[in-house]
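Input for the complex:
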Amino acid sequence: MRGSGKISKAVIKRLPRYRRYLDDLMKRGVDRISSNELSNLIGYTASQIRQDLNNFGGFGQQGYGYNVKALHTEISRILGLDRDYKMIIVGCGNLGQALANYTHYYKAGFIVCGMFDINPRLVGLKINDIEVMDYSALDDYLEKTPIDIGIICTNKGSAQEVAEKLVAGKVKGIWNFATVDLTVSDEVALENVHLSDSLQSLAYYISHRDE
Amino acid sequence: MRGSGKISKAVIKRLPRYRRYLDDLMKRGVDRISSNELSNLIGYTASQIRQDLNNFGGFGQQGYGYNVKALHTEISRILGLDRDYKMIIVGCGNLGQALANYTHYYKAGFIVCGMFDINPRLVGLKINDIEVMDYSALDDYLEKTPIDIGIICTNKGSAQEVAEKLVAGKVKGIWNFATVDLTVSDEVALENVHLSDSLQSLAYYISHRDE
DNA sequence: TAGATTGTTAATCGATTAACAATC
DNA sequence: TAGATTGTTAATCGATTAACAATC
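Predicted:
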C-alpha cells in the first residue's frame, strides 16, 4: 500500500519546492495541472513528479491531471504545515536575530517563543517583542514550556552543549546553523544549514566553471 | 587519468566536511590518518572516502594512510580556497547584515566589498566599514569593479532582476537566499540556501518521527 | 466514446559499498 | 620482510527515467 515504507530524503527535499510552485499556480488562478506541465515549470521530469507524489497517495486523476489547490493542501499536510511549531533561538547574534525576524514576518506556523544568549549586552533586548533571556535560564524554561524546535545560532564550540540541553528539554527538532556536526538522539529531528559549506561549494564551482 | 571527467555534486558537497574534520585533526596535532579512522570520525564509509579522494588524485600512501596537513591543503585547493573572492551583498535587511558580519569575522578569503539596498533608510549605513549603497548604483559599480560573488538577500519578487544585473555585471557566482529558483546563464555558478525549504523539511521529520 | 494523463512496473542510470591486488 | 592500507575494479544498492496498461 502507498504511504507505508520509508520515503527517501531526496523526495522530502523536493516537497517544499513542489509546494512553492503550486502556491504560485494558485495565485495565478490555475486550477489544474498535468505532471508534464508541472515538469516544464519546475524542472523535474514528469515521471519523477508522478513517482514522488505516489509515495504519499494517488492525488491525480487520469485524463485530467492534478487539482492545484488540493495538491497544495496535501503536500502542506504531508510536510506537517497544518499545525504550529513553537521555537526558541539560542544564540542571538546577527544570524539569530535575522532568523527571529524572518520567521516572524514570513513563516506563519513557525513561532519564536523565546530567545537566549550568554552575552549580557544582549540579554534583556527585545526582538519582535521577544525578550532575550540569559542562557542560564534555558533548562528551566524548557522544563516549563513545551517547545517543538530549537534553533542553534551559537558558535561551533557551544553548539553540542546547547543541542544536549535542547534534547534534555524535549524539543522535537533542531535547526542547526553552527558549523559542526551535532550528535543527537534519533528521537530528535536534525536539520543542518551549514552556510560555510555552502559558500565553499560555490567557490568550487566558480573555480571549475570551464571544465 | 584521475581528475578528468565530471565530479558528481554529491562528492563536492562532501568536500567541505572532509576539510572541517581535517582542520580539527590538525588542531589536535594529528599527523596521519587512515580512511578507516577518518570513517569513524566523519561517518562516511572508508570505501567512500577513498573513492571520493581518488576523484582528484592519489593523496594517500599504502600502508600509511593520509597525511592530514597535506590532504587539508589539497582539499582547500580543490575547493578553490587558495585565493580570495570579492563579494557584494544585495538586500541589506537582517539576513544581509548577518551575512556581512559572518563572512567578515569568520570566513577569511571571502571579502564583502560592497552592499546595496533599495531602502533609503539603510542607504548610507555602515556595516563593518562597508557603506550600504543605493540599489540604483549597482550596475555602475559592477562595471567598474570586478566582483566574484553576488549574494542575494532580497525578497523573492526582486531576486530574478537582481540576478540578471549580477550576471550582466560579470559575477562568477551567485549565493541566493531568496526563496525562488533563479534562472541564470550556465556560465555563472549558483548556490541556493532555501531557509524556508530547510525549515519545512524539518517540520516533515518532526511530524513523522515515529514511523 | 476517444483522448488524455495518471499510477505503476520495468529498465536504466548513477552512486555507494565490497573486495582485493598493488605497494608503501 | 610482513603488515597495513591505499587505489581501483567489480558488485550492490537505490534513485531516476521510460513505458504502458488502467482509467477518468
